[in-house]
Amino acid sequence: MYQCINVPVYQLLLHCYTGQLLNYNYKFMNFNTKVIHGGQHHESSTGAVNVPVFLTSTFAQKSPGVHSGYEYSRAANPTRQALEDSLASIENGARGLAFGSGLAAIDCVLKLLNPGDEVIAVDDLYGGTYRMFTRLFEKYQLKFTFISFDDASKISEVITDKTKLIWLETPTNPLMKLVDIKVVADIAKGKDILVAVDNTFATPYIQRPLDLGADIVMHSATKYLGGHSDVIAGALIAKDAELGEKLHFIQFASGGILGPHDSYLVLRGIKTLALRMQRHSYNGYEIAKYLETHPAVDKVIYPGLESHPQYELAKSQMKEAGGMVSFTFKSGKKEDAIRFLERLKVFTLAESLGGVESLANHPALMTHASIPAENRAELGITDDLVRLSVGIEDKEDLIADLERAFS
Ligand SMILES: Cc1ncc(COP(=O)(O)O)c(C=O)c1O
Which pLDDT value is given to residue 26? Predict the structure, then answer.
């Protein structure tokens, strides 16, 4: 029954239920307003300003099949719905969907495909995405081709009539390579190929892939959207309602939804997204500049530095350069990287990124250990590579911490 309800009717039901008019003109608001109000409404019975956490699995019906628009929380829950509307609003999409993790969101996209279909993916991917592609979905006869997207003409060379999806991250994790989203979207145009962008590192504050021609945006909402390292969550935003409905069907049928409490946490995180991203970007730039002048450092990889090979693309595609900085040691030694990481006090040595606190990570031993050593070496994920997720603390304290760990 639920799947038969199309999006506008569904939204009408939702807003009748909450006593609101159809989505106020949030589509035409600016970003700082959208993160607070996009898709949001006050609760009608009490006037609560914040969306309540609807801790319920099921909803009372007046008569069989006659209900408020909500039947069972796997299909839809008002707290998750509020988050999903907010996601659609901030990414300029038609439909948002919230999942129990970033990987559950990626899993949902891959289930759009059929055995024999082919996927072209950027070669420098988050390790867990690579693991899912190669160790789970290859056995269902999906074929993955991993290539560098530095030269977009290479993408056209590997497209076949079976190619159905192009998957990319930009900036990539952990090497901070950029992909020109518009160029890739133009290549796919008119070819029955979907373009999906993992926008976890940049967030919609910095870049909005759907505006550049992508079809799907994916997030590990665990990171900047949640922003406080207190929740595991994922998100998809579809450019058009039809694709959004297909993804929703898979989410509903597979069940990888986000619970109401976690939905509330991500929704609360989104409200400060713009402010946090400004501060992450400011601190990220300051740390990158400091590292560039440090005698123990060999290479600093940060899209906001002129030394980044795609600095011009960063300027045109990204509003700011974000809070992720990677670097290597002059000695090239793994032991130096490990000693440095062990000595940090303000930066916490931990997996993950995008929270208000600064984190440091050794990709080869931690987040990217699932990528075979020879592939890592080929890509440049060397044993002396350190990835920093620069938080929103005072930059002086962060730099002092790095200095202490170097000395
Ligand atoms: C870029 C990127 N995409 C996807 C994921 C997977 O997200 P999750 O850990 O929320 O499942 C991560 C996790 O680190 C990530 O960094």
Answer: 63
